[in-house]
Amino acid sequence: MPNAKGLEKIIIVDDEWESPIVTAVRRRLDEEGWHTLVIVPEAGGSIGDEFEASALYAIEEELPVGVLLDIRLGEYREDQFKGLEILQKIVEQHPKLPVLMFTQYAQGPDRERAVRGSLKWDAPVDFIDKLASPDEVVLRLRRLIGRTPEIIPIGGDLYLDANAKAVYVKRGEDSVIVDDIHGMKFEIIRELAATWYRSPGELVPFSRLERYSEGEEARASLRVRIREIKVSLGRALGVAFGAGDLIINVRDQGYRLVPPKT
Amino acid sequence: MLWWLRIFAGLVLVGGVVGLALAPFIGKSLFVELWGVEPLSYLGGLLVVAALGGTTLTYYLPRLLGRDKAEVDTDQQTAEKWGQLTQQYFELFNHDLGRPLRRILGKERELRLLLQSSESELYPEVKGLLDEIESQTPSFRLMMSNIQVMVQLEAPNLPIKIQPVEPTELIRRIVDRYSLLASEAHKEITWWSEPTEFGLIYCDGSAIEHIVTNLVDNTVRFATEHVEIKLTKNLTDFFVRVWDDGPGIPPHYAQHIFDRGWTPEVARSEEKTSSGLGLFIAHTLAKKYGGDLTLESISAPEPDHHTTFLLSLPLNGNATALESS
Ligand SMILES: Nc1ncnc2c1ncn2[C@@H]1O[C@H](COP(=O)(O)OP(=O)(O)OP(=O)(O)O)[C@@H](O)[C@H]1O
Ligand SMILES: [Mg+2]
User: Fold this and answer.
1) Where are the alpha helices (DSSP H) in chain A?
2) Whole-angstrom distance, CA of residue A109 vs CA of residue A112
3) Are A165 and A128 members of one domain?
4) What is the pTM of this model?
């Protein structure tokens, strides 16, 4: 599978950058196709100030697509909220740069609200607590950064390429195009995959899918197309997808992608 | 105002003293023929007493009134101090208590990766154990915030914080947190909103998040395969319906479901395996914000067994919250 993100960089500013919890997040981001850079403060001077200088410099130099920034940088009292100071500077200098703040859980919504209140309402800044799983961090970053990549994985063995307007199945080192997924059927699977990518549990309502089907009986023809997609992808993987697999339906509401487990 | 009263009382006092002074000379000659008594000295005495009394009152009254006001002030200060103090403790708790947990989790995730990449045949076996450790994190996060909310609910004059909230993003975040965990256990969480473009509501976002997180946390444990979350609204209220296809809750349990600390083990006099606080807190919060939390369930062995919790809250939290406080 081609790299989903090209050379998009994410900068990580965290005093516990070597801790397993940050390492796990970092590894997950790398797996996601982002190129992660960790800010390491130079010795001497106050840790907080070092972080600030290095982080702002790195943003200028590396032009990242997003920043992961810890609120608490160091054990000293004055550095307890250093991350917020850095945030203010980033927002001033790069108002469009998405920043995800790492908070301690019980620091609570009050402080978050206070910070939010001091930012513009549309500033791309979000908060997540440090106990969040790496997957949660990835999902939040995907939404914060907002772009849907050209390549979206559908489970371990399939991926969708929006440029080529096709779905591929991995065969060892190579990828083979899946027959029969084009035109409206490709649009349907693309719509489902794009929603899944940003928000895995979210249903795609009929209203958004029915434009990819025609005739009087839009919903019925949609159902037929979905069934055909399931058959094609199932054949490519050598499995038969049942009603509860791959694309599930909620009566009278819509459909949702459930990528096959590998 | 007070000064005018005091000047007036001073004039009355002077009048009273003058009356008393003149009484021996003119009192008798003027009035004795009329009533057969000498009234001027009584009158003078009365005026003096009234004037002194009035003046005293002008000094004490404000102090009496002022005491009430001051008491209200200290109440509010106490509430604020209480809030700050508990917040400080939670931060301490979280940073220091969370540290070992972060380490444990970090190591667990490292171990997982190691085993995974070494393609060890142990992995499938060990994975279950690792998943179990991992699944303790949402529980820990929920427990922390449950305790925090409990303490806040006890606080005197708890302020209600209303802000614009995007309910879809709120649900999305809860699903982010639980969907991986659910899918590891071969369960699927699906959610949607009607209308699709739901818009903003005015409420305490963290309260809603807290309520729904508790509901979803339960469904992920009890669902057989599917959890559904649906967000709807009418002109006055919005609703979050959390449904699961699990064993359901029998009627004789349903009546206790919102009780503090209740779990089925309590009913069976067994040892509790969970704290039984989630639904109590969720219900208390819903009521506090002028809404409600209700249960509808059909329990196994009925074929269509399921559990539905319905949260309803006023769309414009502001008005209701102010009315009820
Ligand atoms: N969706 C559900 N399906 C079946 N039983 C449920 C469901 N939700 C709650 N219950 C039952 O209600 C009990 C009380 O739930 P509650 O959320 O208040 O506490 P808990 O989950 O036991 O502990 P806590 O939430 O404090 O960690 C649970 O122990 C469980 O037996
Ligand atoms: Mg619970």
Assistant:
1) 20-31, 47-62, 82-93, 108-118, 134-145, 183-198, 206-209, 218-237
2) 5
3) no
4) 0.81
Question: Which percentage of chain A shows pLDDT scores above 70?
Answer: 92
**Using a 6 Å cutoff on CB, does residue B138 contact ligand 1?**
no
CA neighbours within 13 Å on the CB side: how many for A192? 28
pLDDT at B101: 80
Ligand 1 binding pocket includes B47 (Cβ within 6 Å): no
Cα–Cα distances in Å, from B230 out to A38, A206, B104, B212? 40, 15, 35, 11
User: In terms of DSSP bridges, do strands B226-233 and A174-177 run parallel, antiparallel, or are they unpaired?
Assistant: unpaired
In whole angstroms, what is the distance from residue A153 CA to residue A159 CA?
A: 4
Q: What is the CATH number of the domain that holds A210?
A: 1.10.10
Contact state of B91 with A107 under an 8 Å Cβ cutoff:
yes
Task: Summarize the confidence of residues A22-39 as an average pLDDT.
Answer: 91
Mean of pLDDT values over B274-278: 89
Q: At the top level of CATH, which class does the domain B160-325 belong to?
A: alpha beta
Cβ–Cβ under 8 Å, residues B210 and B272:
no
Q: Residue ranges of the domains in chain B? A: 3-79, 160-325
Q: How confident is the model at residue A7 (pLDDT cuts 50, 70, 90)?
A: confident
| Residues B228-266: tens digit of each pLDDT | 999 999 999 999 999 999 999 999 999 999 999 999 988
CB-based contact B192 A110, cutoff 8 Å: no
CB B297 within 8 A of CB B254: yes
User: Nearest residue of B to residue A259 by CA position?
Assistant: B183
Number of domains in chain A: 2
Could you tell me the maximum CA-CA distance found in chain B, to the nearest angstrom? 127
Please list, residue by residue across B202-235, b when 16 or more beta carbons sit within 10 angstroms of its beta carbon and e when fewer do: bbbbbbbbbbbbbbbbbbbbbbeebbbbbbebee
- Separation between Cα atoms, residue A26 and residue A15, nearest integer Å: 14
Statement to judge: residues A116 and A193 lie in one domain: no
Its sign, for the CA torsion B285, B287, B290, B296, is positive
Tell me the two tokens of residue A80.
């307890």
User: Residue A125 falls within a domain, yes or no?
Assistant: yes
- Position A105 in a domain: yes
The CB-side HSE value for B144 (13 A sphere, CA atoms) comes to 25
Confirm whether A1 is domain-assigned: no
Q: Quick check: A203 and B172 CB within 8 A?
A: no
Q: Determine the structural domain holding residue A209 and report its residue range.
A: 151-258
